[in-house]
Amino acid sequence: MAVLDVGILLNEKSEELKLELVAGKNGLNKKITVADISRPGLAFSGYFEHFPYERTQVIGISEYTYLNSLDYGQQLKMLHKIFSHPNATCCILTRGLEPTKAMFEELESLQIPLIKTSLNSSSLISDLIYYFDGKLAPTIKIHGVLINVYGLGVLIMGHAGIGKSECALELVKRGHMLVADDMVNIKKMSGRTLLGSGLEITKHLIEVRGVGIIDVKSLFGIGSILDESHIEYVIKLEEWDKVKKTERVGMDELYTEILGVNVPEIIVPVGPGRNLAVLVETATLNQRLKNKGYFTAKELSARLQKAISQKNGNE
């Protein structure tokens, strides 16, 4: 399970989210394990049923106003009950609110990082959830090439030497954008979407056998690369096999599972004379049509059924 130290959150997002550590410096190694956020308004009123202690607690103007209406002793009691839990992580005050005396003392005593920001609660929460999603998402590394073709993230897979990188190079020359070559780092984001990127060390590079390593960004310009892309389509390249039965019409819908998400897939036989880049472009456009509800093979099948019915009716 992925975890994130509160200290890393501060190091990476302090400037963007205007975060400032107020108290609890000794708790910067607290572990954030979930992307969800909690606003502890109900807990301040004494209702703790199903309270998510493990979430990052965000205190906005309404929670702050209610807490401030309690006397010092009641504030200490509520804060202690929330933040003394072993899974408690940190507390963030929004709108530039200053911590109450009880808040400062109790969180400092419990070594829970108390952070404040000038952002409002809605802006902070949406940005935090997106950031946590990226950091805590399940990940996997897959051999392949990820390229954005006509706005669709296409993962090209196949065994070594079958021509994935050469196909990607031709696609880049035709105006499409490279995300990763050889190794693709894939994250499962919320909403069951897959986000792919390359490894930092091989970012924007392609290895072409016989030519060597190519820097795509330097050769073809900034418009030829993307840092990351959704993965919405998988194309598997296979050696041409005369004996093996190959899909001719495209009626069957295939899927490949990545991190529990089913992604549409096709298998393309590779043989002499086949232009892989054109095949990938065409398959991608066809998949976009399917995503819009137009399935060419099913349309043909319906036409054939209609023609057969009319013929039988005339006999």
From TrEMBL:
It comes from the Bacteria. Residues 206-215 are annotated as: Important for the catalytic mechanism of both phosphorylation and dephosphorylation. Belongs to the HPrK/P family. InterPro entries: HPr(Ser)_kin/Pase (IPR003755), Hpr_kin/Pase_C (IPR011104), Hpr_kin/Pase_Hpr_N (IPR011126), P-loop_NTPase (IPR027417), Ser_kin/Pase_Hpr-like_N_sf (IPR028979). SUPFAM superfamilies: HprK N-terminal domain-like (SSF75138), PEP carboxykinase-like (SSF53795). Its EC number is 2.7.11.-, 2.7.4.-. GO terms for molecular function: ATP binding; magnesium ion binding; phosphorelay sensor kinase activity; protein serine/threonine kinase activity; protein serine/threonine/tyrosine kinase activity. It comes from Endomicrobium proavitum. It catalyses: [HPr protein]-O-phospho-L-serine + phosphate + H(+) = [HPr protein]-L-serine + diphosphate; [HPr protein]-L-serine + ATP = [HPr protein]-O-phospho-L-serine + ADP + H(+). Keywords: ATP-binding, Kinase, Magnesium, Metal-binding, Multifunctional enzyme, Nucleotide-binding, Serine/threonine-protein kinase, Transferase. Its cofactor is Mg(2+). ATP binds at G158, H159, A160, G161, I162, G163, K164, S165. GO terms for biological process: regulation of carbohydrate metabolic process. Residues 269-274 are annotated as: Important for the catalytic mechanism of dephosphorylation. Residues 135-303 form the HPr kinase/phosphorylase C-terminal domain. Both phosphorylation and phosphorolysis are carried out by the same active site and suggest a common mechanism for both reactions. The keyword Metal-binding applies. The active site is at H143, K164, D182, R248. Catalyzes the ATP- as well as the pyrophosphate-dependent phosphorylation of a specific serine residue in HPr, a phosphocarrier protein of the phosphoenolpyruvate-dependent sugar phosphotransferase system (PTS). HprK/P also catalyzes the pyrophosphate-producing, inorganic phosphate-dependent dephosphorylation (phosphorolysis) of seryl-phosphorylated HPr (P-Ser-HPr). Mg(2+) binds at S165, E207. Coiled coil: none annotated. The Walker A ATP-binding motif also binds Pi and PPi. Homohexamer. It is an enzyme of class 2 (transferase). Residues 15-131 form the HPr(Ser) kinase/phosphorylase N-terminal domain. Gene3D superfamilies: HprK N-terminal domain-like, P-loop containing nucleotide triphosphate hydrolases. This is HPr kinase/phosphorylase.
